[in-house]
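Checklist before submission:
- one chain only
- standard amino acids only
- sequence pasted in full

Submission:
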Amino acid sequence: MNDNFYQIMSDIHAGLTGDPKEDLAYLTSAAQEYKDHPLQTEILRAIGRIIAELVPDAEIQKALDKNLKSYDSLLEEVRFNMYQNRYDKALQIIEPVILKVNQSKPFQDDSVSEYHDFSSLLEEILYRSLFNPHKDLRQTPLPLSELFGLYGMILIELQRLKEAEDALHESLRWNPFNALFRFEYIEIFKMKKEYDIFRKLTCESFQYLYERRFLARAYRNLGYYFIENNMFSEASAMYQYSLLFEQSKNAQSELFYIYQEHHPEKELSMEELEELSVDFGFPLQPDESVVKAILVLGHELYKDNRYSGAREVLTIAYELTELKEIQDFIDKIPEMS
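Returned file contents:
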């Protein structure tokens, strides 16, 4: 972060009087003064946040609620049309909003802040653990990850794959932990038969996954990759391994196909499976950093007497690992929130 920025903001803070009307006029004048400064974006945003603090919370919340309700209503209509397979209609609804967002480019990172659209505190903690950001993390008030993610899914259905790839990449920029959109993005390379990229992205996905069903999907992806490379014993091992995380009809049907059509030569031993994971760069368990970050958050919530949140977060850790000691700890958490 820029030391000059902090000095400027310190000077601006020093000029505040505590009188909302006077301070509003003073901050407006300060914004005008720094509008041509090299750090104008950072300074004007920081001044805007101070001004927001002068406005009654009820007024801010009212404005935010109105904006969010508008987006929620739009996305609900988009999802309904997707469910009905009316992708052209869904596109007509969402595309004008996407164009508007692309033109206005709201919430762009600057030298002080970076913006994301996390769906929970857990995802923010995971982001901090994985990327160790040096900027201030700020949550966008708009559901930009879902907006671009749904747009990308619609474009996939309409076979506009390059545009879909761009849209889903943008969705993941706002929230890299949205596993649904991550796998939709990876699916594009499967559709384009770019199987090495498909495998590479699947292997990279493990560091973002904190739900068993998506771990299972990653292993199914690897199973598909091995089928396409005529490695049927390896493919069988991946689909069987995926069943440890989720009982999927897809995995079961793929296993039936492998054994009926290709008669794999052998079942891989655990040692051979471990060698395969090293050779192709994928883990055989949830990412250790993900599990550790979840456990740290769960215990912090517990220490803060936020028992409901602690139970919810630690349950995620237990479902990932099935470690008895985690469940034992959960059982001891008081029922009160």
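Reviewer check: Confidence is low (pLDDT under 50) at residues 57-61.
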